[in-house]
Every structure is written in structure tokens, then in C-alpha cells.
Design brief:
Layout (H helix, E strand, L loop, with lengths): L4 E6 L5 H14 L4 E4 L13 E5 H10 L4 H7 E4 L2 E5 L8 H8 L8 H16 L7 E5 L4 H10 L4 H14 L6 E6 L3 H11 L2 H12 L2 H5 L4 H21 L4 E6 L5 H13 L1
Parallel strand pairs: 1-6, 1-7, 2-6, 7-8
Antiparallel strand pairs: 3-5, 4-5
Helix pairs in contact: 5-7, 6-7
């Protein structure tokens, strides 16, 4: 393989998860060692998922507030410099109020300055891994997660997001990464079936996150149509940003759902 890192991106329901598994199976059949990390995995080596970030005072305060759970907190806490990182979804048999308190300090709840700092540090740690001939496959963490943080939540200037992604692109350049990006000309039509298939809890959360926060509020987005407008904007902005990033990428318009053709194209790209 001519890469140690493959990234699969696209709007929700575009086929990222299925494709990531397809690539893993395809490579393993060819004898390649593969590690796949998908959205939501707390063990992700480059993206903080369900992880709280605390400074020294906050960490000590948490110990004082929940003394009966001190050992569990200390067992999962990882200190990096002056900060403590706690994967709170890995805590078991603890006070639920502790998990809630840590969730409020999630990495994705940090201000943008601190978020960028810890994000860059984590990507640097990942790049320093002894990869050997292993290939890592990531889903969502390069584009989607920063996009929702910078734009959906904070309505930051697109230039700031672009600069953030350029920095990460430079950090991971030694891995010769390959990014596969799925997009649809008609986002509304492609997303509708996914939206209907998901649970009401997921729909409520997804709608509120993208419509009721920074970008959505500033632009007066409302309801399902507002959500589709956000996803269309996201597609257009991500594709513009990708044009200027120093990272190999393959764009796949998969609105027709011809997965045999898409996968044949991906296999050809991987073999280059």
C-alpha cells in the first residue's frame, strides 16, 4: 500500500460506514493489515469521542465532588501536559451525575482556541505511531466532526475551518493519506430515506444540532427544510475546501446508488 491512512467522508447517510467496511475487507483479502475506526468509537486514536477535557483545578474539583468514584476517575484519566482527558463513556458503575458533569466538559464543548490546540496535539500523537505496514481507516473525523464544531455550533468564519483542516493535512502528510468523499447533487432526496429510517431520538438531536445552534440560528433555518439547506451548504463548502487542501482525494457522486460501480472505482484508486 502507498498510504497508511484512508479517510471516508460525506454527509450522513452517504454510505461512509458501509464503504469503510468494504475497504477494510477488500484490503484484508489482499493481505494488508487494517485498523478501522468509525464514528462514535471512544478508542479512536486521532479524534476525541465522548471524552472530557479538564484542567488541574477542574480535575481536582471532580474528585472532590465524587469521592466515591475517585478510583474509577483516576483509572481512566489520561494526563497530557496540564490537561486531563477522561473517556467518560468508559466509566462503569459510577454516579450518573458524574458522567453528566464530564459530558458538559466534552472536548467538543471547548472554545475553538482550546479545541484546535488539543485536536492538533492528538493528530500529532497519531502520526508518531509506529505504523509499519498497517493501514488505518477513519470515518468522519477529518471533515464532518470539525465542520459541525466550527460551523454548525459556532458559525465560525469558513476561513478558520479551512486553516484548521490545512494544518491537519500538513500534520498527516507523512502518512500519504487518501480521502474518499461521497456527495450527492440532490442532497434532499438522498438524505430523506436516511432521516426516515433513523429513530425519533436521532432525528430530534440531529435537527436541533444543525438548525438551532450557531449557523442555523444566524441564518434562520427551520425544520427539515432548514436541515437540508444546512447539508447542501456543508457539501458545497467541504468540496470548495477540499480543492485547496494538500491531501489526495477522490470525489464520488453517489446519488444514483450504483455501488458496484462506485466500489470498482474505489478499488482502482486504492491500487494506484
Amino acid at each position: 500500500m502507498n498510504t497508511n491512512l484512508m479517510i471516508v467522508e460525506g454527509v450522513p447517510g452517504s454510505g461512509k460506514s458501509t464503504t469503510a467496511h468494504f475497504i477494510k475487507d477488500h484490503l484484508e483479502k489482499k493481505g494488508v493489515k487494517v485498523k478501522l475506526f468509525q464514528e462514535g468509537e471512544t478508542s479512536h486514536p486521532a479524534d476525541y469521542e465522548s471524552t472530557a477535557c479538564l484542567n488541574e483545578n477542574q480535575f481536582n474539583d471532580m474528585i472532590e465532588r465524587f469521592p466515591e468514584d475517585r478510583k474509577e476517575i483516576e483509572d481512566v484519566a489520561e494526563k497530557k501536559g496540564e490537561l486531563y482527558f477522561i473517556r467518560y463513556r468508559n466509566l462503569v458503575n459510577v454516579d450518573s451525575a458524574l458522567v453528566d458533569a464530564l459530558a458538559s466538559m466534552d472536548v467538543y464543548e471547548l472554545d475553538l482556541d482550546r479545541f484546535e490546540e488539543v485536536s492538533f496535539d492528538y493528530w500529532e500523537e497519531f502520526v508518531d505511531t509506529d505504523f509499519g505496514d498497517e493501514v488505518y481507516i477513519f470515518e468522519c473525523c477529518f471533515l464532518q466532526n470539525p465542520f459541525t464544531k466550527f460551523i454548525a455550533m459556532h458559525n465560525a468564519e469558513p476561513k478558520r475551518l479551512e486553516d484548521h483542516l490545512k494544518t491537519i493535512s500538513s500534520l498527516i502528510s507523512p502518512l500519504n493519506p487518501l480521502l474518499i468523499y461521497f456527495y450527492q447533487e440532490d442532497v434532499g432526496q438522498s438524505f430523506q430515506h436516511v432521516y426516515q429510517e433513523r429513530s425519533q431520538e436521532w432525528r430530534d438531536f440531529f435537527m436541533d444540532y444543525h438548525v438551532s445552534q450557531g449557523y442555523g440560528k444566524e441564518n434562520g433555518l427551520q425544520g427539515y427544510q432548514g436541515l437540508v439547506e444546512f447539508l447542501e451548504m456543508r457539501r458545497d463548502m467541504e468540496m470548495r475546501i477540499l480543492e485547496g487542501l494538500p491531501i489526495r482525494n477522490v470525489l464520488v457522486e453517489n446519488g444514483e446508488g450504483d455501488w458496484e460501480r462506485y466500489y470498482d472505482s474505489i478499488k482502482e484508486t486504492i491500487s494506484l
